[in-house]
Amino acid sequence: MFTFLRDRRALETSEFAVLAAAIIVVVYGAFKLLGANVADIINQVASFI
Amino acid sequence: MILAFAVGIWLFACTACDIKWREVPPSLTLPPLFGAILWTALTGKFAMALFVLLLFILADIPVRSRGFANGLQALIFVLGLSTSPDPILAGISMLAMFVIWMIWQLEKMGGADAQVLLTLLLLLGPSILLPVALTGGLQGIITLLARKKTMPFMVSVFTGTCIFFLMQLPTS
User: Fold this and answer.
1) What letter would DSSP give residue B172?
2) How far apart are alpha carbons B124 and B136 in whole angstroms?
3) How far apart are CA B141 and CA B44, in angstroms?
4) Residue A16 has pLDDT above 60, yes or no
5) DSSP-derived 3-state class of residue A11
6) pLDDT band at residue A34, thresholds of 50, 70 and 90?
7) CB–CB of B78 and A20 under 8 A?
8) Dihedral over Cα of B11, B130, B87, B109: its sign
9) Is A46 within 8 Å of B87 when comparing Cβ atoms?
10) Which residue does chain A place closest to B17, by CA atoms?
11) B93, B121 contact by CB (below 8 A)
12) Residue of chain B with shortest Cα separation from A22
């Protein structure tokens, strides 16, 4: 029970850290470029719900 | 300022444990995590707090019988989007939390790292992930050059958070 909370390991795979950084940079760049349009869509969906 | 100092001291202690034992004791990670969840709920973001709590339980449900739990998770996500005064921030935060949990589930990140990242995400918002991920990438490259497979990620979390706080300082 509560496997997530009992896990005390603090190691990350090096390759994955590099990959995650690259993905975050791409996502951040895309959001900066398309941010206004994405924000409009999310606001429309939220108000529709 | 007080929050920055408190977070800095806490992360320094976590980093010291990570470097020494490659582990962080739950006494250092869980009280801040539950404090952050409580603070999130008290500031009106109930759906987001519920979303994190459900992630803890989701890890113990076998993949085959996760249908209902996943449905509930999606429902809370939509609820969080619709009830939040800032749906974009809420949506990005919940997606980031799920991604962190998934990385842990795939065994690419330790549980203590994931718990600390979730705490920072709840306290400081999703923008904290950018400096942490960038310093993590840099640490990853250095570790790969040293021909090592794993690295103490808490070092990047601490450095990235310090950079985040330094960027918040007024420039004048």
Assistant:
1) -
2) 18
3) 40
4) yes
5) strand
6) confident
7) no
8) negative
9) yes
10) A10
11) yes
12) B137
When pLDDT is cut at 50, 70 and 90, the band that residue A14 belongs to is: confident
Q: Which residue has the higher pLDDT, B17 or A1?
A: B17
Cα(B47)–Cα(B69) distance, integer angstroms: 15
Judged by CB atoms closer than 8 Å, whether chains meet at A42 and B87 is answered as yes
Confidence class for position A4, pLDDT limits 50, 70, 90: confident
Q: Does B61 touch chain A (CB under 8 A)?
A: no
- Residues of chain B in contact with residue A1, where contact means CB-CB under 8 angstroms, are 60
B109: exposed, middle or buried (Cβ count in 10 Å: 0-12, 13-18, 19+): buried
φ/ψ of residue A13, rounded to 5:
-70, 130
d(CA B170, CA B168) in angstroms, rounded, equals 6
Q: Which of residues 82-121 of B touch A (CB under 8 A)?
A: 82, 84, 87-88, 91, 101, 103-104, 108-115
Instruction: Give yes or no for B125 touching A (CB within 8 A).
Output: no
* Beta carbons of A20 and B148 less than 8 Å apart: no
- What ipTM did this prediction achieve? 0.79
Blockwise average pLDDT, block size 10, chain B, 172 residues: 90 93 92 94 87 85 73 75 76 88 88 94 91 93 90 92 89 59
CB–CB of A7 and B112 under 8 A? Answer: yes
What is the reported pTM? 0.87
What is the distance between the alpha carbons of residues B18 and B24, in angstroms, rounded to a whole number?
6
